[in-house]
Specification:
This protein is α+β, with helices and mostly antiparallel strands. The protein is built from 8 helices and 6 strands; from the N terminus they run αββββααββααααα. It has a 4-stranded antiparallel β-sheet. A two-stranded antiparallel ribbon has the order 5-6.
Length: about 290
């Protein structure tokens, strides 16, 4: 049996077993080139209990299966670098073991087993930046991002409050007619969740253990340095005030209170001949687009 026939036989078996859970890309000559499958932990079809996932991409060289395929793990959800590195090492060992034999299904099962064993987010909550400890109540969004339930509730409540405040500042014709839409704090995809139910969850344990913020001597020294820098920038023309920023282009040609001793500030260079600019400052009429 030729290499191509062996690969085609493996692909047909994968499509029969996995059906819509696998996609195959083909070359112009009809040979399989790339196999992709998004893998979830085994939870008896209870998708609400699937907290992690990853997309497996297997690129098939011309010599496959007599050589190792090129394997990439894409779009990991709920997995940290340590878990991914462990998966890559296990995949490498499996590919070495199965040189000369079909290995794609073996890789899928290997990854599924690992995800099932670690079916708990190993990433950090993007709101509080703490990890997930045993006993913490957490939420998985539809886009497979993870947050402590308490943190997500606080984030959505604050976001909706800001949305309402901004809407009140707008004229009627500019106000949104759709109302507030909760979005994922990571990818901004629309999400749906019961904020009141999330709010009833306890704060994460790491957050409870966190020390209360205190102003240290080092921070006071930094504040003093930043204050000096602020004064220096302001004296050098670094305008920070919003109203001053809006009016900084206002040009005052004369003032009734001005006196000869006032510093007029920088002015445009003047030539010896009144009304005529020096040669190197004249405008070339050929570059003038207006006619």
């Amino acid at each position: 049996m030729s290499l191509n026939e062996r690969v085609q036989e493996e692909i047909e078996a994968l499509e029969a077993i996995l059906m819509d859970d696998i996609s195959i890309s083909y070359k112009e000559d009809g040979c399989p080139e790339l196999v992709k499958s998004t893998i979830f932990p085994s939870t008896a079809d209870d998708t609400d209990k699937q907290y992690v996932c990853v997309t497996l991409e297997v690129k098939l060289p011309e010599e496959y299966p007599d050589c190792e395929p090129v394997v990439q793990l894409r779009n990991p959800r709920g997995l940290d670098d340590t878990t991914l590195n462990h998966l890559y090492r296990a995949i490498k060992d499996k590919c070495n073991e199965f040189v000369g034999q079909p290995v794609i299904y073996e890789l899928i099962e290997l990854i599924r087993e690992n995800l099932t064993e670690s079916n708990l987010p190993t990433c950090h909550c993007a709101v509080c930046l703490y990890g997930f400890s045993e006993g913490d109540s957490f939420t998985k969004t539809q886009c497979f991002h993870y947050f402590h339930s308490y943190c997500l509730a606080m984030h959505l409540i604050t976001t909706e409050k800001h949305f309402v405040e901004e809407q009140e500042k707008l004229p009627a014709w500019q106000k949104s007619t759709k109302g507030f839409q909760a979005t994922c704090p990571v990818c901004r995809e629309p999400i749906s969740c019961d904020v009141q139910e999330l709010k009833n969850a306890l704060p994460p344990r790491e957050l409870k253990k966190a020390q209360n913020f205190q102003v240290t001597k080092e921070l006071q020294m930094l504040q003093a340095q930043m204050r000096k820098l602020f004064i220096y920038q302001k004296s050098r023309g670094g305008i920070i005030d919003v109203e001053a920023e809006e009016n900084k282009l206002l040009l005052i040609t004369e003032s009734p209170d001005s006196s000869p001793g006032d510093d007029p500030g920088p002015s445009l260079p003047q030539s010896d001949t009144d009304g005529i600019l020096p040669r190197n400052q004249r405008c070339d009429p050929r570059n003038n687009s207006s006619r």
